[in-house]
Specification:
Layout: H1 4-26, H2 31-37, E1 41-46, E2 50-55, E3 64-71, E4 74-82, H3 85-88, E5 89-93, E6 100-104
Antiparallel strand pairs: 1-2, 2-3, 3-4, 5-6
Helix pairs in contact: 1-2
Length: about 120
């Protein structure tokens, strides 16, 4: 039986292949294809019939989470959630005020995007 990790890693490989073909068809390289190559599984929460698999993004605050459902021996993707940038990133100016630095801060229950869940 395939694990949730194996299922998502296989899905990412198929997605990379699609992006490579699309880049060839539409000419030039797609930025999405380059960013997709660096994605890796960073966290898994697997239950008997359900799993959450978090994959890295191009930088902090841009991870994705696959919500999976198992039917018999097969996994399927129920939805793909994105990490909420409003909750997870805060812009703070450095001392001289000329450079912006992003800092991970956690969720906000008043968030209009994710209502404090951290994912949307």
């Amino acid at each position: 039986m395939q694990s949730a990790r194996q299922f998502v890693e296989e899905h990412i490989k198929k997605e990379l292949r699609f992006l490579a073909v699309a880049a060839t068809c539409f000419g030039g390289g797609w930025r999405d294809a380059e960013q997709a190559k660096a994605r890796t599984v960073v966290d898994i929460s697997e239950l008997k019939k359900r799993a959450f698999v978090t994959i890295s993004g191009p930088r902090e605050g841009y991870r994705s989470r696959y919500v999976l459902r198992r039917v018999k021996t097969e996994w399927s993707i129920v939805k793909v959630q994105r990490e909420c940038p409003l909750c997870h990133l805060r812009q703070s100016l450095l001392h001289n005020g000329t450079f912006a630095e992003f800092e991970l801060v956690g969720s906000n229950t008043n968030c209009e995007v994710c209502a404090g869940k951290g994912w949307w």
